[in-house]
Amino acid sequence: MAELTAPPQALLLLANLGRRRRPAGAAAPYSEPILPGSTVAAAQLAGVVDQSVAAADLVDLRRLQRAAVHAAEAILAGGALDCAEINALAADSTARVELIVTNGLLRRQLVWTDTSLAAALARRLIEELNALEPDRLRRCARPECDLIFYDTTRSRTRRWHAEDPCGWRERQRVHRTRRSNSNGGRPGTGRVISGGSATLILHPDFVISPVRA
Question: For residue 87, is it within any domain?
Fold first, then answer.
């Protein structure tokens, strides 16, 4: 599918922390701890933060993470956002205007100063929320997964947060359910093809096993 717009990375990362997920190879769904310490927090935020996380940053980062969850859930529910917490955390970000020359032309630019890591991330979150299209924010359609994603396809038909594992696992489940229903709830017995000295058993789930004659 053709990509249309960039996803709101900070919103998705923060809102998905602690959500139930079942990646490929996991025996059961699980939830990761949310910003439990500086080292783990730095790893969890690596996609949107390019600096180390100090212990002093954790309180406001956790506040921002909860605010991002509330914002995402409000968008998914079609409700109104409570902007107070995000705005409060971004209040320590200030900007000044500068005049620069680009390709011989005068331009103005804003230069931001962020007094804390949470303030910088809150400012980015505000910019993403301002730019996103609310109806593109979705929850993964696989029951075992609670992750949120942003549908960037032109057709707006994406259903999974990722094709692997959620997309193909859900299609497998639907296939097994349809086959079971077509057999009255009984598993299929397969189809036998004989020829020469070997017999092939075509399993209903498309697994081919050779059986010597």
Answer: yes
